[in-house]
Design brief:
about 260 residues, alpha+beta, 5-stranded antiparallel sheet, 3 helices, about 25% strand, rod-shaped
């Protein structure tokens, strides 16, 4: 009797599933409590059922897992389709919002890190390049001479002499050894020449070059003399200093 009832139930279930293949508006209740609204594509007797949900997702379930099959109305099916579409749209919108927020957060973090690194580099370069003025400045009064093309006096082309009225230097954390070397000055040209110097750990000037900032005269003669004198300057040795440290020496050329 039990076997007959079981056989009858299987036959009824098979008939319902076979009918579902011709009309897709069905709900399939599973023994685990899940309910599927689907189109039945293929059913293999005693084996499995293949279907498609209204949103296009395919599935395959074992016949043994099916509890019952029920036909639903067209109105309920339309409602289910709208619900699937609403859920999918909401999921897409959430995904877009999350991706956008993550991209904006990454861009902001990268910009802040870049700005911080640039600020640190600028501060370091400012300290190492010129820094604070040295312990003091040296004033000299070495005189040169200039010869005009005729004898006379005043502001014309008569006799005149030039002098280096003052010199100054700047090299952060270092001190000058002795006096600043004095450029040779045999010219009637006047102005200020600023020389950028590069100093190593031993205090030697390994490079000297006139820079435009602060320089007021374009005389190649005065530039060459200033660079030559700057290379002879000597500063204290410092094992903790940068391998190469930049500073300046400034010469003021005037006429007596």
């Amino acid at each position: 009797m039990y076997r007959f009832a079981l056989l009858l139930l299987t036959m009824i279930l098979c008939c319902e599933i076979s009918s579902a293949q011709n009309d897709p508006n069905y709900t399939i209740s599973l023994k685990n409590g899940s309910v599927l609204i689907c189109y039945v594509e293929e059913y293999t007797l005693g084996s499995s059922l293949k279907g498609v949900t209204p949103n296009g997702s395919q599935f395959l379930i074992n016949e043994a897992d099916i509890l019952r099959i029920e036909k639903i109305s067209d109105e309920d099916l339309a409602w289910a389709q709208d619900l699937f579409e609403t859920i999918e749209s909401a999921q897409r919108n959430v995904g877009y919002a999350v991706a956008k927020a993550e991209a904006e957060a990454r861009a902001k973090a990268e910009a802040e890190a870049k700005a911080k690194a640039q600020k640190t580099a600028n501060a370091k370069n400012a300290i190492n390049a010129f820094g604070k003025p040295g312990p003091g400045s040296a004033n000299t009064s070495d005189s040169g001479s200039g010869q005009g093309d005729r004898i006379g006096s005043g502001t014309g082309n008569g006799n005149g002499s030039g002098s280096i009225s003052s010199t100054s230097w700047a090299l952060n954390g270092r001190s000058l050894v002795g006096n600043l070397p004095k450029p040779t000055y045999n010219s009637q040209e006047t102005g200020t020449v600023v020389v950028e110097i590069t100093v190593d750990k031993t205090g030697a000037v390994v490079a000297a070059k006139v820079i435009s900032k602060g320089t007021t005269v374009q005389s190649s003669y005065l530039w060459a003399q200033a660079e030559s004198a700057a290379k002879k300057a000597k500063f204290n040795a410092d094992a903790k200093a940068n391998a190469l440290q930049k500073g300046t020496i400034t010469y003021h050329f005037t006429l007596k």
